[in-house]
Structures are given as structure tokens and as C-alpha cells.
Amino acid sequence: MNKVKILAIETSCDETAAAVIGDEGGFPQVLSNIVSSQIDIHAQYGGVVPEVAARAHIEDILPIITEALKEAKTELNQLSHLAVTFGPGLIGSLVVGVETAKGISAATGIPVVPINHLEGHIYANFLKEPGTEVQAPSFPILALLVSGGHTLLIYVKNHLDYLIVGQTWDDAAGEAFDKAAKAMGLPYPGGPIISKLAQKGNEARFKFPIVDLTPSPARNEEGFLEHPEPSLDFSFSGLKTALIGQVKKIIVENGRLSEKDKQDLSASFEKTVVDTVAQNTLRAIKKYQPKSFILSGGVAANQRLREQLQKWVKDEGVEVFVPDLDFCTDNAAMIGAAAYFHIKENKIATFDSANPNARL
Ligand code: KG4
Ligand code: ZN
């Protein structure tokens, strides 16, 4: 097989991204990774507006691809494959990436590898940057994916072999940060600003619930109490409601939230999210006994989550992998990395269109 060189495209939400991925010693190597974030556009509306996102992707996609190819000193005819996120995500956004990839493929004959966005987040941990040694996670892997749209615990037995073992019943972890910020009158996206405020806050001032979805013990036919297995699922809507309740109480009492109130609310909120995520992660580690643990998704940028999970999971004797910040939030290099392993394993799916509800 000729050397693999992939142009990867990602437009599932509010980042227009393109990357060129090469092949270095059996690992996907980042030759360029260009991301144009639409955060400034959406911040004025307090969240991502799908129609606005789709239009911005249309404007940005070709310049971003051109930049990615230029930075990687690569011409289209030097590529072996194209890769594109086909879902899950916002349909109007996904379509822009998918149709662009198909258009380039039709004009050049280069095959397209369709990639599930969630796979991309997992494979961010296999990327090699030039001049660095890659130490890849060993299988089986437990992956925690925490982003604005997803909160998933995934058991990865081997390459491309996934089992979802925990998921959220309502809001995603990043969505909880975004909604909490909105409730405190803070801008979108909520995660970075809440973690900044939390650094100066008193996490003990408010007590928020750490949700445990394990069913209560029940009596079996012989009348003995049976304890169900601890749940690995998440729910963040109760936490959001608890925070909104506190905000309203403070406003009734004092007329407004002071800077100190915001700091303390942020610290207590962040601590609760981290403890909730850690509770289920440690349960999954005990149950599945993985060799490696990987943390990914936009919320993996949270310093407290990174530090605490790294410590607690290492204490269980499991190797921990967390991608660089640039590869935690949405990017195309991770999509290229997932495509790289689909190509190596000779498992390239055919597809006709974007799928906003694609499953792993
Ligand atoms: O993975 P991502 O870039 O996009 C999705 O696929 O959703 O994740 C974006 C999410 C947002 O909800 C944002 O608030 C959250 O990641 N986030 C953070 C932090 N930085 C970004 N959450 C907590 N702490 C952070 N430092
Ligand atoms: Zn994502």
C-alpha cells in the first residue's frame, strides 16, 4: 500500500476544521491542523445557532482546507484519502463538510473515509506530533468523552471495537457548564469561564447533589435484599436546577449575584461535576479493568477534571492519556487519526449522506 496521507475535514458543530495527517512509524502524524472557531459569532446569542453555524462553515471551509494543505506542503494529488465527520452533530453543519469531501473526491478520484465524530475524540489520543515520541494507549481502553454534546464512557476492546457502558440521561457535561454559566449571567461557552471563576471560589459554600442513578436495592422472590450493580450513567439536569435555585435565592436576598457569589457557585458546581464524572469513571474501571484510560472532549480542557482523574485513575494502576488541549476540543486531526486506523484495518465504510444521529 502507498503511504497514507489524509486530508481530514470536521464541521459537526461550531468549528470549521481541516488537517493533513501523514504516516510515521505506524501512527497518524499531524502535518497540519487548522481550526476556525465560531465562538465569537455564537457568543452574542448565548449558544450555538445551527443556521448561523452552517452559513459560517460554508464561508470558511475552502480557505481552511487551503491553509491546511499549504501548511502541510501538500498538493491534492499527493493525498491517498479524504476523511470527513458524517455525524453525530448539527445536520446543516455536517452537510457542509460531507458535501465538500464528496466534491473533492468526485473531482480527484481520492476515496472518502466517513468518520463518526465520537471515534475522532477517542483517536485524538493516538496522534503523533512531529518531533515527539508517541506512546499509544494499550487495549483494552476505557474512554471518557465529555463534550458539549456528549458524556459517554466507552469500553474499547480493540481498534474500532466500541461498547458504550455509560451515558447521560439528559444534559451533557459541557452543556451543564454552559447552562450554569447562562443562569449566572455569564457568556457562552460556560466551561472556561466557570473554571476560571472557580479558582478563586469557596467550593464548600454550596452543597450540590452528586447524582447516582443506581436503582435502590429491591427484595427478590425469596425476600432477600438484592443490590443492583452500580450505575455508570449520568444525569446533570438536577445539578443545573439546584444551581438555578441557589442563584434565584441569592437574587431574592441581595438583588444580584456578587463576584464572590459567582466564584463560590462556580467552585461548588465544578467540584460536583468532577466528582460525579469521577464516581462513574472509577466504577467503570473496577468493572472493566482496562489497561489504559483516555480522557477526551472539550470538557477535558478542565484543569480540575484532568488533574483529579489522572491521579485517581493512576491510583487504580491504569495508564492515563489526555490529549493536548488543541486535540481535546473539536478538530480535524482527530478525524484523520480515526480514518488512519480504518484504512490500516481495511474497514472503510461507504456512505451517502451526513447523519446527525450517528451512533458508535
Ligand atoms: O468537544 P467540544 O469542543 O465540542 C463538542 O463536541 O461539544 O466541547 C465544547 C464544550 C462546551 O460545552 C464548553 O463549555 C466545554 O466544552 N468546555 C469546558 C472547558 N473548556 C471547554 N468545560 C469545562 N471546563 C473547561 N475548561
Ligand atoms: Zn466534539
Helix content: 40-55%
How confident is the prediction overall: mean pLDDT?
94
Order of helices and strands: EEEHHEHEHEEEHHEEHHEHEHH
| Strand order in space, largest sheet | 3-2-1-4-5
Reported for the largest beta sheet, the result is: 5 strands, mixed
| Regions with little confidence, pLDDT below 50 for 5+ residues | none
Q: Which structural class do you get from the secondary structure elements?
A: alpha/beta
Task: Give me the Rg, rounded.
Answer: 21 Å
Bound molecules: 5'-O-[(R)-(carboxyoxy)(hydroxy)phosphoryl]adenosine, zinc ion
Overall body shape: globular
Number of strands: 12
- Taken as a percent bin, the fraction of beta residues is 15-25%
Number of helices: 11
Q: Could you give the distance between the termini?
A: 28 Å
Account of the 3D structure:
The chain is an alpha/beta fold and 360 residues long. Strand 11, helix 9 and strand 12 form a beta-alpha-beta unit. It starts with 5 loop residues before the first strand and ends in a 16-residue tail after the last helix. The longest helix has 30 residues, at 259-288. Strands 3-2-1-4-5 form a 5-stranded mixed beta sheet. Strands 8-7-6-11-12 form a 5-stranded mixed beta sheet, with helices on both faces. Strands 9-10 form a two-stranded antiparallel sheet. The protein has helices spanning 39-43, 50-71, 91-108, 117-123, 173-183, 190-198, 237-254, 259-288, 303-315, 325-328, 333-344; strands spanning 6-10, 15-24, 27-37, 81-87, 112-116, 141-146, 151-158, 161-167, 218-219, 225-226, 292-296, 319-321. Helix 4 (117-123) crosses helix 11 (333-344). The radius of gyration is 21 Å and the shape is globular. Bound molecules: 5'-O-[(R)-(carboxyoxy)(hydroxy)phosphoryl]adenosine and zinc ion. 5'-O-[(R)-(carboxyoxy)(hydroxy)phosphoryl]adenosine is lined by residues 13, 147-149, 174-175, 177-178, 189-192, 195, 297-299, 301-302, 329-330.
